[in-house]
Design brief:
alpha/beta, six-stranded mixed β-sheet
């Protein structure tokens, strides 16, 4: 099953696969652009000319969040939107509160798992789901012209919502079945010094768990720094040192999760989705008999599902495309290998805390260990390498690179697959391959990486 994918939404200049993202204080993550983007989004949602339009704005713990929050607020209020500032909350909290508070628009200021130097802006519609490609393209197009401001008497107001975190926490606890408690479970929770640094430990404690918090001291620059779902070693060490039953690792905006067993071994999104799909199917809860995941998910997951009479529906990379397929076909479970787990029975986007809780519920309900629950299938050997490219370079368009990719696809034909794509959030080419023959796998990936690196200079 060979193939390559060149990316989706590449014609848009500003919006990537998950909103607008870049290095803080550099285009497009400048205060000026955030102000204009806020105004453009405000004008888009005030096309009917009515009154009482409102927008909620959340952010993670990055230092640049203050700057972007103020700029977005200025832009939005200039077009007559009333702004409700949530403060530091997870991305899924913005999706939930946009709908719960009857807002026309939700905005999350975050660069997710990226380092603190980066930041991003993503939008949610009034239904709590991320905006469509078409809506983002229309907002982006309006940036090219003059954005009509509101009349002086119609300028919007801004105020802080003090109980945003509490509202989200109470919602999260409703996703745990009645009567289920986490008493007796010792849980390491790594919040990546990010948006869930208060909410996640409090929810776990209130549900009865003994909590060992990690990554809960944000200072504006330590988000995702040697902690969280992209650096699980810190939490793994804490799990072993404290004799914990399980570890939950979130990323900076808490829409991703990785699970650690009592030995600190990592279970990625594929294993978590396999568990949820299997259990939900047994309970008659898995709509359509299918799980939606991206082209990055392991072949082992696909085989695991097929062995149980279930289907894996693959999409392009990006949780937004997973959600779009779920909504289109009525599925209620999907996600990404990277740890975005989307359960539309509960949330409109990936929610790392909710997914982690569902795993803990299975531990509490069955009495099985994290190690048992987190090893649902044997993975097909998979290798992923990233190649950073210089600004202005398009290494995947080079004839030499395309020739190498074609040759390597022929090598693995019938034994695996190759996926080459540009990141939607960073100047990276991602080279991924799967193959039962680990020696061939390494050779294929290294050959392609070498060709891309040469073209990327």
């Amino acid at each position: 099953m060979a193939g390559s994918e060149w990316g989706i939404g590449m014609t848009r200049k500003l919006f990537g696969t998950d909103g607008v993202r870049g290095q803080a204080n550099s285009y497009p993550m400048t205060a000026e652009m955030a102000l204009r983007l806020g105004a453009a989004a405000g004008r888009y949602f005030r096309r009917d000319g009515g009154s009482a339009h409102r927008v909620v704005i959340g952010k993670d713990t990055r230092l640049s969040g203050y700057m972007l929050e103020n700029a977005l607020t200025a832009g939005l209020t200039s077009t007559g939107m009333n702004v409700l500032l949530l403060g530091p909350v997870p991305t899924p909290a913005v999706g939930f509160l946009t709908r719960s508070m009857r807002a026309d628009l939700g905005v999350m200021i975050s660069a997710s798992h990226n380092p603190h130097q980066d930041n991003g802006i993503k939008f949610f519609g009034p239904d709590g789901f991320k905006l469509s490609d078409e809506a983002e393209a229309e907002i982006e197009a309006s940036l090219e012209g003059e954005i009509l401001p509101a009349k002086p008497e119609s300028i919007g107001r801004a105020k802080r919502i003090e109980d945003a975190k509490g509202r989200y926490q109470e919602f999260v606890k409703t996703t745990v079945p009645a009567g289920v408690r986490l008493d007796g479970l010792k849980v390491v929770i790594d919040c990546a010094n990010g948006a869930a640094y208060k909410a996640a430990p409090e929810v776990l404690w209130e549900l009865g768990a003994e909590v060992v918090p990690v990554g809960v001291s944000p200072n504006g620059t330590n988000i995702n720094d040697r902690c969280g779902s992209t650096h699980t070693q810190t939490a793994a060490e804490a799990v072993v040192a404290h004799g914990a039953d399980v570890g939950i690792c979130l990323d900076g905006d808490a829409d991703r999760v990785m699970i650690l067993d009592s030995q600190g071994k990592v279970a990625d999104g594929d294993q978590i989705m396999a568990l949820m799909a299997t259990r939900w199917a047994e309970d008659g809860r898995l709509r359509g008999g299918a799980l939606v995941a991206t082209v990055m998910s392991n072949l082992g997951l696909e085989r695991h599902l097929q062995g149980r009479g279930l289907r894996l529906e693959r999409t392009a990379v990006g949780d937004r495309y997973v959600v779009e397929r779920m909504r289109e076909k009525g599925f209620n479970l999907g996600g990404e290998q990277s740890g975005h787990i989307v359960m539309t029975d509960y949330a409109t986007t990936g929610d790392g805390l909710v997914a982690g809780l569902q795993f803990l519920v299975e531990m509490a309900r069955t009495g099985e260990s994290a190690a048992t629950l987190a090893r649902q299938f044997e993975t097909v050997p998979q290798m992923l390498k990233n190649v950073r490219y210089a600004q202005g370079k398009q290494p995947l368009l080079e004839a030499e690179v395309q020739a190498v990719i074609a040759a390597m696809e022929a090598r693995v034909a019938g034994r695996g697959r190759i996926l080459i794509r540009k990141s939607g959030t960073e100047p990276l080419v991602r080279v991924m391959a799967e193959c039962e023959d680990s020696g061939l796998l390494s050779e294929v990936v290294e050959t392609i990486v070498s060709a891309v690196e040469k073209a990327a200079r």
